[in-house]
Amino acid sequence: MRRWTDFPRDNSDRSVRIWLTEVLLGSGLVGLADERECRGVADRLVAGVDDRSRPVLELLGRRYDEAELHNLGKGLDHVLDGAPVQHAVGW
Question: What integer is the mean pLDDT of 64-84?
């Protein structure tokens, strides 16, 4: 299971989204072979923590705390285990 310490050190929204996309892209899963698809899944995972739009979060300089990163890590692990992202975030 991914821990909050696995995430980028600055915990900024942009860094976290890029990291999630890279992990998903590198997973080798058939449904996650396209970078655009991986960005969409990363966006969904982040929306499970904070549903404001990406531009708003970047403008605010949003940083995620340990509990939020832990939840993102759990969601990421569910997706990597083959669960649909909607199930991973609970909606």
Answer: 92
Count the Cβ atoms, other than its own, within 10 Å of residue 71. 18
Instruction: Report whether 42 contacts 24 (CB < 8 A).
Output: yes
The shares of helix, strand and coil residues in the chain, as percent rounded to the nearest 5, are: 65, 0, 35
Q: Which pLDDT belongs to residue 88? A: 82
Helix axes 35-47, 13-25, angle to 10 degrees: 130
Task: Give the dihedral sign, CA 82/88/90/91.
Answer: negative
- For residue 63, list its beta bridge partners: 12
Token pair for 56? 């708003």
Does pLDDT of 31 surpass 90?
no
